[in-house]
Each structure stands twice: as C-alpha cells, then as structure tokens.
Amino acid sequence: xxxxxxxxxxxxxxxxxxxxxxxxxxxxxxxxxxxxxxxxxxxxxxxxxxxxxxxxxxxxxxxxxxxxxxxxxxxxxxxxxxxxxxxxxxxxxxxxxxxxxxxxxxxxxxxxxxxxxxx
Amino acid sequence: xxxxxxxxxxxxxxxxxxxxxxxxxxxxxxxxxxxxxxxxxxxxxxxxxxxxxxxxxxxxxxxxxxxxxxxxxxxxxxxxxxxxxxxxxxxxxxxxxxxxxxxxxx
Lengths: 119, 106
Prior knowledge:
The complex is a heterodimer.
Chain A: E1 3-7, E2 11-12, E3 18-25, E4 34-41, E5 47-54, E6 58-61, E7 69-74, E8 79-84, E9 93-101, E10 109-110, E11 114-118
Parallel strand pairs in A: 2-11
Antiparallel strand pairs in A: 1-3, 3-8, 4-5, 4-9, 5-6, 7-8, 9-10, 9-11
Chain B: E1 9-12, E2 18-23, E3 33-37, E4 44-47, E5 61-66, E6 69-74, E7 83-91, E8 94-97, E9 101-105
Parallel strand pairs in B: 1-9
Antiparallel strand pairs in B: 2-6, 3-4, 3-7, 5-6, 7-8, 7-9
C-alpha cells in the first residue's frame, strides 16, 4: 500500500525559501498514472491547492503562487519536492502531499502533513 | 478565479440526514469531490466525480451536482461523522477548495 511522508524545516524566517520533500513508499513515483499534489492548510482551516506534478516532469501551479513555487521530482529517491520562495507569515500552514490517479482525478492518498511556521 | 461557497456549519440530529451545499458558478458542469477532515488528521476522500464513492466509504455518504450547487448528503448521521467537510473542483488545471463546513451531530 502506498504511503506518503512529508518532511522539511518546521521554522523559517521571512524572505527565506521553503523546501519540503514528500517520500513515496510502496510504489514508484515514476508511474505515469498518478498526479502528485501539494496542498496546504493555514489556521482557519481552509485548504489551498499549491500545485501538482504528473507525467514525470509536467507541472501545474496555483496562479496565486505560481511566481514563487517550483515542484520537482527526484526519481532516484522516489521523492517529490516543493520549493516556495520569499515566504511570509501568510505561508505558515500544514503542508500536505497527496496522490491522485488519472482515472479518479481526486487526491485519495494523503501524507500526514508537516507544519511550517514563518516567523 | 473560480470560487466555491459552503455554509460555515451544519447541525444534524443523531440518526438523521445532513445536507452540505457547495456553490459555484455552473458547478454542475464540473466534477465535484468531497473530503472529510477530523482534527489532527489529513483529509479523507469521500466522494469523487460528483457521486462516486472510493472503496471503503459507507453508502451513507452520497453526492449530487446540478446547476450552481453540489450537495453532500450524510444519512443516518453518527457521532463519528462530526468533522469538517470540504468540496473541491478542478477549474481547468487549477485545484479549488471550498472554505469547509463544520458538521455537528446533536
């Protein structure tokens, strides 16, 4: 059974670049049948879709974050990565990676999330 | 950008039926997903493509979508159904979530 585990620094200073990884277990990130999403949830609970990678290298980003976000993959480590530049307090949130199949197009496998605080 | 609306909260008596709405411009032309989230947990996919349930999701959870409103229905509500519920669509290649609805079972 596939599992996702997010990791990264819990605390950042404003203007720094946030770097997170999502390690995929129980399956290969190489599979072209899946999309891998980054989604975050700030205090107040609203979910915000950040972006996704599919077909090993193709990406879509939330237009509101597009200028600051890069999603990439390291196939040798079976990891998805998120970089978010020029962070501010507004980027404080729990960050999730989530997988969805191309047949369902709905994130149905989620990591447990990792908390990021910008202060 | 595309926006979704949801009621802030919904209350339902134990064993009764709750309906949670998700409003959006011509949302009936999109596939709608619904997620349940309990405190401290990641969201759980309940419904995809308007009304389809992933394996393991009880039949008590059902969805519909038409016009400008999609609806998640929880039948025979249980205490364990207390959670936040989020709707989600794809606006072209952009994911959009609703603000969430807190469901309380009385």
